Amino acid sequence: GGRYHKLNEVIGGEDRQVGSQLLDVLGHDDKIAVFKYDGKLETVVDFNQGHEAIDRAFDPLGTPGFSETNFYDALLETLNRMRDVSVRKAVIVVSSGLDTFSKATFQQVLEAAQNSATPVYTIGLGPLIQSESAVYGATAPFARIDWSSAKKQLEMLAKASGGRAYVLDSSVGVPAIYDDIMENLRVRYVISYVSSNDATSGPSRQI
Question: In whole angstroms, what is the distance from residue 73 CA to residue 37 CA?
């Protein structure tokens, strides 16, 4: 949300509800880390913690306390941390997609997503937040937020990384989104090809 306390309250509540439903689709051997962000990225649960910690992972998310929401910085740092993970991996982003004060630019994050070898699955909260914040009326400061651009950027990040983008307009749709993500992860194969020919030009090679 950033800069708007009431909007932050809405986002904090939705993040907690959407995030907690991820636990229902995790397998016993699946490992997850949970991060939250406002002005900076904070580790809630790390990969080496047990299932008890995971079960409580989404309890303390609460309302962001800082007035800014640095989405680009947070995702960039998360992707950098994922470089050390050698097994099959993915990043699931539950976010409005809004950014207010990051040092990193969207283009830098987009390039990092493209080169990270980590698919990013985005769950955009824009429509859900818009619906819930409509009670504050058209004169509220956050009524002027460009939700369309935020949605487009989430889609671009997912596509560049080889993941998928989802838009949430009701919490009822969360289980279906997670089922689709997990199915995609479990059947996902990456085929790479390295030519023994060092030449960078010439006729097309048959594979």
Answer: 9
Blockwise average pLDDT, block size 10, the chain, 207 residues: 54 69 83 86 87 72 61 96 90 90 95 94 86 66 79 96 90 87 78 63 62
Token look-up 């493209």 returns 114
Is pTM beyond 0.85? Reply is: no
**H or E stretch covering 155:** helix 147-161
Spatial contact of 116 and 83, defined as CB atoms under 8 Å apart: yes
How far is residue 42's CA from residue 134's CA, in Å, rounded to a whole number? 30
10 Å CB burial of residue 35 (0-12, 13-18, 19+) is: middle
How far is Cα 30 from Cα 23, in angstroms, rounded to an integer?
Answer: 10
| Three-class SS state of 157 | helix
Tell me which residue has tokens 């006729």: 203
